[in-house]
């Protein structure tokens, strides 16, 4: 393993952390409707829990309404029940084959809770990024200890890893700030 391998592996893991954060932030509810909100809901499909996206088409009707179109006739009631029982506080309404999920306006208190949740997700991503930095620096130190790299290489590699870490943490801060602004927008 070389320093370049360590650097590229660390960068790939940091990108994964950023992607995971984007996924987590997409699930946090804002005032507007977002089909990703329903990704965590599982529906009972012939005795086994299945993600909602595998038994229905989830899309937006307008800025405050999500539509759920079941692929099978008999699934409507089960999907409606699963959405109602989720912890999202949503109340779906059935209109023939189509299920409409209106997004209720959020109270100020609920908005503050959601921003705290977004900050916590951001902080978890930062911790993961810092842990990746620590692991990469330890791997570089091990190379120096095993005489596979010089101390000058170590200093250079640690500086590059630190720059990479700073860049990803700034990106995390940017994502969290954008999500907070989205949540607080009335």
UniProtKB/TrEMBL annotation:
The keyword Transcription does not apply. GO terms for cellular component: cytosol. Keywords: Coiled coil, Cytoplasm, Protein biosynthesis. GO terms for molecular function: ribosomal large subunit binding. It is found in: Cytoplasm. The keyword Cell division does not apply. Its main location: cytoplasm. Residues 22-184 form the Ribosome recycling factor domain. Residues 133-167 form a coiled coil. InterPro entries: Ribosome_recyc_fac, Ribosome_recyc_fac_dom, RRF_sf. Pfam families: RRF. Gene3D superfamilies: 3.30.1360.40, Ribosome-recycling factor. GO terms for biological process: cytoplasmic translational termination. It comes from the Bacteria. Belongs to the RRF family. Responsible for the release of ribosomes from messenger RNA at the termination of protein biosynthesis. May increase the efficiency of translation by recycling ribosomes from one round of translation to another. This is Ribosome-recycling factor.
């Amino acid at each position: 393993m070389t320093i370049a391998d360590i650097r590229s592996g660390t960068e790939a893991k940091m990108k994964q952390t950023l992607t995971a954060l984007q996924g987590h932030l997409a699930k946090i509810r804002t005032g507007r409707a977002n089909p990703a909100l329903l990704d965590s809901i599982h529906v009972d499909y012939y005795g086994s829990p299945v993600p909602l996206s595998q038994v229905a088409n989830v899309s937006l009707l307008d800025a405050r309404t999500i539509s759920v179109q079941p692929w099978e006739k008999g699934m409507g009631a089960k999907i409606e029940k699963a959405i109602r029982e989720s912890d999202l506080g949503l109340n779906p309404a059935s209109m023939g084959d189509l299920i409409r999920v209106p997004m209720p306006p959020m109270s100020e208190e609920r908005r503050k809770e959601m921003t705290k949740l977004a900050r916590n997700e951001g902080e978890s991503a930062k911790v993961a990024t810092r842990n990746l930095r620590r692991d990469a620096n330890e791997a570089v130190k091990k190379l120096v200890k095993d005489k596979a790299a010089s101390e000058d290489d170590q200093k250079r590699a640690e500086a590059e890893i630190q720059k990479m870490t700073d860049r990803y943490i700034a990106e995390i801060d940017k994502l969290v700030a954008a999500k907070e602004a989205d949540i607080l927008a009335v």
